[in-house]
Every structure is written in structure tokens, then in C-alpha cells.
């Protein structure tokens, strides 16, 4: 569809930028950040861990900052509409918590933090959606929720 809208030359304009969402500044080099800032119209950010049993700290630091969501993050909605749903917890509090707690402590309290959400994947993707939604008035962002 992109080729149809923008023509065949669009492929020449697409560039992959390497990074690591576990690193500061998403592991993106200073040069690539400048390229993004000065030459980019659309970003597809799809990095995530999709393991359902990922330790909570790793899942939060990977998935909460991703922009590609999933239909799986609102499990208890009978019909998933194209609207923003409230997160299962305050994403900012969860991020701060996992940043200062060690893995062993987080692992021991993960079931309590998740509540009735069955896994860290669904929990963290819902948190990430909330952060993106918070910036909708400031940035041209969208939330995509592909299903299986």
C-alpha cells in the first residue's frame, strides 16, 4: 500500500536504524538520532520481547517503550474498540520501581503487580500503549493492535 501511495521510489527512502531498547537513548547512535530528527517522517518501532514468561523488569524495560501494541494487551475486553483503554497500573511508577529494584525482589512480587493479568507480555504492552496515548497531543503517534 505504501508503494501504491508514494510510488516505487519509497523503498529507497526506507532505512533500518540499529538500536537496543535496553540501552540509554534506545542504543541509537548520535549520528542516527540526528538523521531521525532531521530526515524522518515516519518511524516504525516494533522492538519487543514476546515471551509471556519474561521476568517483569526485562519485560517493562523492553515492552513499555515499544509503539507496536497487540490485541492481546486488553484480555478482558469482550470487543476491542479503536480507543485508548486505561492501563493496569501507572506506567511511570512501574518503570521507576523496576529500575531500582533488583531482579530477585521484582520476581517475588511480580504476581502481585500483575494482578489478574496472566503474563508480563500483556501487562507491559498495555503500559506501553498508555505512554503512547499520553503523548498523542504532542506527537503524531498511532497505536496498532495486530492480533495473532
From TrEMBL:
<protein>
    <recommendedName>
        <fullName>Fatty acyl-CoA reductase</fullName>
        <ecNumber>1.2.1.84</ecNumber>
    </recommendedName>
</protein>
<dbReference type="GO" id="GO:0035336">
    <property type="term" value="P:long-chain fatty-acyl-CoA metabolic process"/>
</dbReference>
<keyword id="KW-0443">Lipid metabolism</keyword>
<keyword id="KW-0560">Oxidoreductase</keyword>
<dbReference type="InterPro" id="IPR036291">
    <property type="entry name" value="NAD(P)-bd_dom_sf"/>
</dbReference>
<feature type="domain" description="Thioester reductase (TE)">
    <location>
        <begin position="9"/>
        <end position="65"/>
    </location>
</feature>
<comment type="similarity">
    <text>Belongs to the fatty acyl-CoA reductase family.</text>
</comment>
<dbReference type="InterPro" id="IPR013120">
    <property type="entry name" value="FAR_NAD-bd"/>
</dbReference>
<comment type="function">
    <text>Catalyzes the reduction of fatty acyl-CoA to fatty alcohols.</text>
</comment>
<dbReference type="GO" id="GO:0102965">
    <property type="term" value="F:alcohol-forming long-chain fatty acyl-CoA reductase activity"/>
</dbReference>
<dbReference type="InterPro" id="IPR026055">
    <property type="entry name" value="FAR"/>
</dbReference>
<dbReference type="GO" id="GO:0080019">
    <property type="term" value="F:alcohol-forming very long-chain fatty acyl-CoA reductase activity"/>
</dbReference>
<keyword id="KW-0521">NADP</keyword>
<dbReference type="GO" id="GO:0005777">
    <property type="term" value="C:peroxisome"/>
</dbReference>
<dbReference type="Pfam" id="PF07993">
    <property type="entry name" value="NAD_binding_4"/>
</dbReference>
<keyword id="KW-0444">Lipid biosynthesis</keyword>
Amino acid at each position: 500500500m505504501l508503494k501504491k501511495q508514494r510510488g516505487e521510489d519509497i523503498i529507497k527512502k526506507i532505512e533500518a536504524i540499529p538500536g537496543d531498547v535496553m540501552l540509554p537513548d534506545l542504543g541509537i547512535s548520535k549520528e542516527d538520532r540526528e538523521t531521525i530528527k532531521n530526515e524522518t517522517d515516519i518511524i516504525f518501532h516494533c522492538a519487543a520481547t514476546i515471551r509471556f514468561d519474561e521476568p517483569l523488569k526485562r519485560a517493562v524495560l523492553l515492552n513499555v517503550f515499544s509503539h507496536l501494541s497487540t490485541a492481546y494487551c486488553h484480555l478482558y475486553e469482550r470487543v476491542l474498540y479503536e480507543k485508548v483503554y486505561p492501563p493496569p497500573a501507572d506506567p511511570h511508577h512501574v518503570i521507576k520501581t523496576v529500575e531500582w529494584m533488583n531482579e530477585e525482589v521484582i520476581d517475588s512480587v511480580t504476581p502481585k503487580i500483575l494482578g489478574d493479568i496472566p503474563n508480563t507480555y500483556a501487562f507491559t504492552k498495555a503500559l506501553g500503549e498508555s505512554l503512547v496515548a499520553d503523548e498523542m497531543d504532542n506527537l503524531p503517534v498511532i497505536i496498532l493492535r495486530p492480533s495473532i
